[in-house]
Automatic annotation (TrEMBL):
Species classification: Bacteria, Pseudomonadati, Bacteroidota, Cytophagia, Cytophagales
Record keywords, A-Z: Hydrolase, Signal
Protein name per Swiss-Prot or TrEMBL: Serine hydrolase
Keyword Phosphoprotein in record: no
A biological process from GO: response to antibiotic
Source organism superkingdom: Bacteria
Catalytic activity: a beta-lactam + H2O = a substituted beta-amino acid
Domain Beta-lactamase class A catalytic, first and last residues per copy: 52-266
Length: 312
């Protein structure tokens, strides 16, 4: 008798568990995705130019794509694939990461840190790579591109690894027409976010190469746009870029409730100013804030008042 009662209680408990409200969580997730779509659509409404956005929450696999497969100028985000091409050469033993390089005036492109070196100055390759990713040094980046075998070698690596739209155009034979249209490089919001994820997952070149590349991308000096909307205590890895009519940013956020990656790109902007109030730069901050509060709804953090005066 007691055993029968015990079985009955177990059966009733099983029914209660089976009837527990698990399904609505999936519906709620779908509703949240639509809500995020709407928030992002509202953020770009009226933008004077073209915008593309791709978002991927790596924990929930939630994705949002708005013109995510449209080709945009990379501007300085091209320095992510340049780094991949360079580390491919290092992995093959054709270069050494800590080898000593000798700067020549013929390498000069602009007056960044590398471009300000004296002719004959010696600098480790690892330092040049760090400057390329951290402060986006253009002379150093073109030097790295050449050391990687040029745009053609980098583009071959991209194609081999499944990136069909991301390409280096500048100083790359056969891509002059693309350079005239897109500048230094071209990509899509989806592919650029996927490339950053590829590195994060240890799939770019090799696990150890991916680890070093990811660390380089985690030392960002230009933190006044998307990163300014994420708590400084939260790890975020990023690369951004800007030219007169375009702003771009790809970010991997190691948020408390799960990693998410996103990319925002613009082109054909009417606003070509270089102030913090630039419409594209403002959009980068707005999108970053929307995503942070969407994926971390309990967070009460907001940018410290007066932060703007420190913005670059």
């Amino acid at each position: 008798m007691r055993f029968s009662i015990f079985l009955l209680l177990v059966f009733q408990s099983s029914l209660l568990i089976a009837q527990s409200p698990k399904a609505p969580k999936r519906i709620k997730s779908k509703e949240n995705k639509q809500s995020l779509d709407q928030q992002l659509q509202t953020a770009i409404a009226g933008f004077q130019g073209d915008v593309g956005i791709y978002v991927h929450n790596l924990r929930t696999d939630q994705r949002v794509a708005i013109n995510a497969d449209t080709i945009f100028p990379t501007a300085s985000t091209v320095k992510i694939p340049i780094q991949c091409g360079l580390f491919d050469k290092i992995h093959k033993g054709e270069l050494s990461y800590n080898q000593e390089l000798v700067y020549k005036d013929s390498l000069h492109y602009d007056d960044g840190i590398v471009g300000s070196l004296k002719d004959g100055a010696k600098i480790p390759l690892s330092h040049v790579v760090m400057l390329m990713e951290t402060i986006s040094d253009n002379t150093g980046s073109l030097w790295c591109q050449a050391l990687a075998g040029g745009g053609t070698a980098i583009n071959n690596w991209l194609a081999t690894n499944g990136f069909q739209e991301t390409r280096v155009n500048s100083r790359t034979p056969g891509r002059e027409a693309y350079r005239s249209r897109y500048g230094w490089g071209q990509t899509t919001p989806r592919e650029l976010a996927q490339l950053l994820t590829y590195i994060r997952q240890g799939r770019a070149v090799s696990p150890d190469a991916s680890e070093e590349m990811y660390r380089n991308l985690g030392r960002q000096f230009w933190d006044h746009n998307g990163l300014s909307q994420i708590p400084s205590s939260v790890k975020a890895v990023t690369k951004n870029g800007a030219v007169n009519q375009a702003r771009s940013e790809v970010v991997m956020v190691h948020a408390p409730h799960g990693d998410y990656v996103y990319c925002v790109m613009t082109k054909n902007q009417k606003d070509e100013s270089w102030e913090r109030t630039n419409e594209g730069s403002t959009l980068l901050r707005n999108v970053a804030a929307i995503l942070w509060h969407y994926f971390e709804p309990e967070s009460t953090w907001k940018p410290v008042e007066g932060y703007e005066k420190w913005a670059k």
